[in-house]
Design brief:
Order of helices and strands: HHHHEHEHEEEEHHH
Helix content: 40-55%
Number of domains: 1
CATH topology: Glutaredoxin
CATH architecture: 3-Layer(aba) Sandwich
Structural class: alpha+beta
CATH class: Alpha Beta
Distance between the termini: 25 Å
Radius of gyration: 17 Å
Largest sheet: 4 strands, mixed
Strand content: 5-15%
Shape: globular
């Protein structure tokens, strides 16, 4: 799907009938309006715009962008609208694939019997400490001829998500196991609505542009896992 098609899809009965992420509960919320709003407010800096245009103009520069997303993920809601802005500025062809089928993928790999895009998901798993995770969003950059250049996964390196998440949880005595305390949920929602989420979205773009520049100059940046 294009970004516009994807946003429209997130608000359809078909999508809302699918299982949601564990901490939001079993029922999906309609995030289509929020995604459109965040896209409308998302802006690249002058340097970021110049950088993606320079990169796209290089021989074998980025021309196509594959994104794996699930809109119940706050990381996807933060980054995918910004990725759309990046693609627009650079003239990149961007296509979005859902990670899951009817049920949320909870295993170390996507199940081909359950996920229609399992082959794509399993090609771009997060690898950490000998384990794999179906982390989203995933953004994979290719040349016009679909030669792999670089992939970005989940959140920028500057965003220490787990430390922040755990610290917020520890402050709420009602938060335990898979039960989310009201205090934690309020603080987590406020974080998403405040100035830091746009800052981290911009940091993701900086990280991507820097890696693609390295790819153009050096020839082989490491895959981020």
């Amino acid at each position: 799907m294009t970004f516009d098609q994807y946003v429209t899809y997130t608000g359809t009965p078909e999508n809302l009938a699918r299982e949601a992420g564990w901490w939001l509960g079993p029922e999906r919320m309609d995030f289509s309006g929020l995604l459109r709003d965040w896209h409308g407010r998302a802006r690249l800096s002058e340097a970021q715009t110049s950088a993606i245009r320079w990169l796209a103009a290089q021989p074998d520069g980025p021309s196509r962008l594959l994104v794996i997303s699930e809109e119940w993920s706050s990381d996807c809601r933060r980054d995918v609208p910004m990725l759309a802005r990046l693609a627009e500025a650079g003239g990149l062809e961007m296509r979005i694939f859902t990670r899951d089928g009817e049920k949320v993928g909870r295993g170390p790999r996507a199940d081909p019997a359950a996920s229609p895009n399992a082959d794509i998901v399993n090609e771009f798993l997060r690898e950490q400490d000998g384990r794999t995770y179906q982390s989203v969003p995933v953004a994979v950059f290719y040349t016009k001829e679909l030669r792999y250049l670089y992939q970005y996964i989940e959140f920028p390196a500057i965003y220490h998500k787990e430390r922040i998440f755990r610290a917020m949880q520890a402050k709420d005595p009602d938060d335990a196991g898979e039960r989310r305390g009201d205090g934690f949920l309020r603080e987590w929602r406020a974080l998403q609505e405040g100035p830091f989420f746009p800052m981290w979205a911009s940091a993701a773009v900086d990280e991507i542009l820097s890696a693609l520049h390295e790819r153009m100059v050096v020839g082989s940046p490491e895959r981020r896992s």
